[in-house]
Amino acid sequence: MKKTAIYPGSFDPLTNGHLDIIKRGLRLFDKIIVAILHNPAKQALFSIEERMEMLEESLKGYQNVEIDAFQGLLVDYANQKKADAILRGMRAVSDFEYEFQMALMNRRLNREVQTVFLMTGLRWIFTSSSIIKEAARFGGNIDGMVPAIVNQKVREKFNNKS
Ligand code: COA
Would you give the end-to-end CA distance of the chain in angstroms? Predict the structure, then answer.
């Protein structure tokens, strides 16, 4: 039986830390669906379409990866996609409580979908999309922290705004 995992998140924008989780997840699952949450509660820098485009470009060599967007409950989306698992990356200890809460709530909502955690690579433990955007906003160098296409799009956004 082929196993599919959903890797959900805001991806505003995708970072090398996310890529690391996706690549390592592909060693465990036959297919990974990278699912961008349309979350009105978070003020995004990039539109869903822009985020999808950056994900597609950054993952174009990977045949077992699908890129999609969703709204509403993650477990409903997982059901709809017939996924076996939700894949999450765990960074510092500070992620634990939120992830634990979310995994338990998701399990309560749908016992068929398992949450699988991978420890984020050491290099990416303290990165996040927001911290990278903040550095770039003030002219900081984000080379090596995000894929080349993301680097370019982030620069374009901030240059256009200034
Ligand atoms: N490397 C680098 N950064 C990482 C990372 C990694 N491996 N993994 C996560 N991050 C960063 C992200 O960039 C993001 O940074 P930001 O907050 O600065 O944007 C931060 O960690 C949070 O990560 P993300 O995975 O994008 O979480 P989220 O809180 O935006 O989304 C969902 C989490 C989508 C899984 C969750 O909100 C969800 O499932 N929502 C749907 C509703 C639902 O079903 N809720 C649960 C039950 S009620």
Answer: 52
Q: Tokens standing for 20?
A: 């690391």
Ligand 1 cavity residues, CB under 6 Å: 8-10, 12, 15, 17-18, 21, 37, 73-74, 89, 91, 102, 105-106, 120, 124, 127-130
Give the Cα separation of 162 and 10 in Å (integer). 25
Per-residue pLDDT of the chain (162 residues; tens, 9 = 90+): 899 999 999 999 999 999 999 999 999 999 999 999 988 888 999 999 999 999 999 999 999 999 999 999 999 999 999 999 999 999 988 889 999 999 999 999 999 999 999 999 899 998 999 999 999 999 999 999 999 999 999 999 998 554
- Say how far apart CA 78 and CA 63 lie, in whole Å: 20
Which residue of 104, 128, 146 sits with most ligand 1 atoms within 8 Å of its CB, as the best mutation to test the pocket? 128
How far is 85 from 6, CA to CA, in rounded Å? 6
Domains of the chain listed by start with CATH number:
4-126 (3.40.50.620)
